[in-house]
Amino acid sequence: MKSLKTIKIMYWATTGIVALMMLFSAYSYLTNPEMIKAFPQHMGFPGYFRVELAIAKIIGVAALLLPLSPTVKEWAYAGFTITFVSAFIAHSAIADPIGARVFPILFLILLGLSYSSYKKLSL
């Protein structure tokens, strides 16, 4: 069985990577002119969805990193799971390059490792 220290390291490493990526993504959604154009023109989503998604990602990161109730954390994990699965589907539907389709799956795996270690720590 893994030691508590190993589980904590796995939790913080995977959660930190996911959190940094989501913050970078949210920042990019709000400030990168190419991303601002890509949502309606390339992806076919309305412009306001980009802003909503950026705000949701920032709130989700806060929910993962702050010492909040387990219910709030569960919702954050669920929200990011939906986000990663939806990103994979959206990028696949418009035949984006393989990298755009693989990254959401990689982050879904990291999120799963974070969730697994979170559950072990909260027992």
Describe the structure.
The protein is mainly α and about 120 residues long. It has one domain. The chain is about 85% helix and about 0% strand. The protein has five helices and no strands. Helix 3 (about 45-65) packs antiparallel against helix 4 and helix 4 packs antiparallel against helix 5 (about 100-120). About 20% of the residues are buried. The model has no long low-confidence stretch (mean pLDDT about 95).
**Helix proportion of residues, in percent?**
over 70%
Secondary structural class: mainly alpha
Q: Regions with pLDDT < 50 over 5+ consecutive residues?
A: none
Which term fits the overall shape?
Answer: elongated
Mean pLDDT: 96
Overall structural domain count: 1
Number of strands: 0
Count the helices. How many?
5
Task: Please report which band the strand proportion falls in: under 5%, 5-15%, 15-25%, 25-35%, 35-45% or over 45%.
Answer: under 5%
Distance between the termini: 14 Å
Instruction: Specify Rg, calculated over alpha carbons.
Output: 15 Å
Pattern of helices and strands:
HHHHH
Sheet having the most strands: none
Outline:
This protein is 86% helix and 0% strand. It is mainly alpha-helical and 123 residues long.
